[in-house]
Amino acid sequence: MAGAWLNLTPEHGRPELVASVLMSMAAQYWHGLDALRNSGAPLQEIRGGSGLLDMPPMAQWMADALGQDIVLHDERDASLLGAVDLALGHQDTTPIKGGARYRAKEASLHARVVETWSAIAEQINSRL
């Protein structure tokens, strides 16, 4: 799979490139959440682990971008543990206690993520 920046001009610098990568990441996550919601799967909370979400400003940004609260695990292998739970058919709906919770606050960022995903999907579909 290949990636590209569309409509890139010499006026675009490092800040714009970093912002576009983050926005694309958030759009991909939002697409996954949207697919879960459309499948009828109950979505009570988003649980996150380590990585970018270890930085409180990034965790808050992602909660705002997704328009949904995020609860962080202290567990370093949260993604692996979540995949194992899904594979085993576990449906643990117990809210996590003690983990940091980031509440979605900035609705305009979420709207931009949805708009970004729509533009990405349109570009992909036009090339298929």
Q: Based on the structure given, which CATH architecture is correct?
A: 2-Layer Sandwich
Shape, principal axes of CA atoms: globular
Q: Structural class of the helix and strand makeup?
A: mainly alpha
Low-confidence stretches: none
List how many beta strands DSSP finds. 3
Proportion of residues in extended strands: 5-15%
Biggest beta-sheet profile: 3 strands, mixed
Q: What strand line-up does the widest sheet have? A: 1-2-3
Q: Percent of residues in helical segments?
A: 40-55%
Could you please say which CATH topology applies here? Answer: Nucleotidyltransferase, domain 5
**Integer tally of domains:** 1
Termini separation comes to 13 Å
Order of helices and strands: HEHEHEH
- Please work out how many helical segments DSSP would assign: 4
- Report the C-alpha radius of gyration, rounded: 16 Å
InterPro entries: ATPase_NBD, FGGY_C
Pfam families: FGGY_C
GO biological process, one term: carbohydrate metabolic process
GO molecular function: kinase activity
